[in-house]
Amino acid sequence: MVRSGKLLARSQASRPTTRSKSKLRTRRTAGKSRRSKRGESASLSRSRQPEGMTLEAWQLELRRQHGREQPFLLKNLGTEPVFSEFQVANPARKSLYRVAIRGTSPGENFCSCPDFATNALGTCKHIEFTLARLEKKRGGKQALKAGFLPPYSEVCVLYGARREVHFRPGSECPRELARLAARHFNAESRLDDEAFDRFDDFLTAAARIDHDLRVYDDVRALVAAHRDETLRRERLAQAFRAAFAARR
Fold it and tell me: 213 near 177, Cβ under 8 Å?
């Protein structure tokens, strides 16, 4: 079954003495040490890439840092406490986005915001905000570490530099469905390029199996976009061959 501050000038007399400067430095050093012991990382610049950090790692960490600082509002739209769909609201901008949590790695989750759709990172500030809030819940960190394994199976999109369609078998996935998926998805459970044209065949056969298989809208959209791109390339190739033959 497929389911579908102001700065004030100081006079020379008001400047701190050498001794007071030393105390200030000591306090600052102690403050840094305390932050280090707590495991807090220094804030990254949003305009200058740190030395020794790749562009992708910098942008990922910026979103984690920025997301965990936000005063967003979180509402669970599903029944599961951690691996569920959430609504993230930004009171300042009066915006609402849908976030689906499936894990902690980039690409596993989904957000309906424009940044997630275009950044090719597999995460955004709304996802990072949601993960941070879930980690603070009782049992949340342990659940995220254990991973997502529902009874139902699903076909989902993994986001990143390249978007991929994946089959994720649930804990109650029947052998018949697993064998069917193996004929359409590769060893990494990814839908190969040549299998996009046969995706409807997979859905038709899966619908005859008594099991909850969830196929999300972004999967269907990606499959349709892939087919359109393939058709466009074929037509361009045909037009090129026709033009080349006419010149001979």
Answer: yes
**Per-residue confidence (pLDDT) for residue 11, from 0 to 100:** 33
Q: How confident is the model at residue 38 (pLDDT cuts 50, 70, 90)?
A: very low
* Cβ pair 117, 131 in contact under 8 A: no
Per DSSP, the three-state class of 217 is: helix
Show Cβ contacts of residue 130 under 8 Å, excluding neighbours closer than 6 positions.
74, 86, 88, 99, 101
User: In whole numbers, what is the pLDDT of the chain averaged over residues?
Assistant: 84
Assign 3-class secondary structure to 127-193.
Answer: HHHHHHHHHHCCCHHHHHHHCCCCCCEEEEEECCCCCEEEEECCCCCCHHHHHHHHCCECCCCEECH
Hey, what are 172's tokens?
């109650």
> pLDDT tens digits for 50-90?
788 888 888 889 999 989 999 999 999 999 999 999 999 99
CA-to-CA distance for 222 and 52, rounded, in angstroms? 35
- Report the range of poorest mean pLDDT among 107-116, 146-155, 221-230, 233-242: 233-242
DSSP string, 30-85: HHHHHHHHTTPPPPPPSSSPPTT--HHHHHHHHHHHHHTT---EEEE-SSSSSSSE
